[in-house]
Amino acid sequence: MLALVGCSNSDSDTESKPSTTPTAVSPSPSSTADAENTAVLTAYTSSWDAQTKAYSKASSTGTDLKKTTTLRALFDIEHDLTVMRKAGQVTTGKPVINPKAVKVTHGKIPKATLTDCVDTTHWTLINKASKKPVPLPTTRLIKYVSTATLEKWGKTWMVTKLTAQEQAC
Questions:
Q1: What's the pLDDT tens digit per position in 115-145?
Q2: Which end of the chain, N or C, is less surrounded by CB atoms within 10 Å?
Q3: Strand 89-93 to strand 100-105: parallel, antiparallel, or no bridges (unpaired)?
């Protein structure tokens, strides 16, 4: 599984939401940027929530993965889930994510990139039948840098690529 065997990936339950209180004044560029960054972070966190749920049962069925993650990222996750099912493996616990450094570029299709420190200390790959941890390489990174690329499709930010870096954080 890429997330646990490679470097790892992570998830967070809480995320602040932009205010929906109407205002008669146009938002300043900085508040517009803040709202956009919040939307990107919310989409990224939602994708991790869906990933964590999918890995816990080795299936994307009943998750929001297809609502939050697309293209190469979804392909990679589905591949991991197939490998896990064949091996009789699932995950327990949760990764911890700490996304930062959001950069949004506007264009025909707005794009965003962010950097994260993913901590998989309490996210364990187990044998589904025995409930025992699956041995993983001792050299794998438990806390690693990850980058994500997102695109804005209509009004929705979608994770299009997740890249685990071979760099500790």
A1: 999 999 999 999 999 999 999 999 999 999 9
A2: C
A3: unpaired
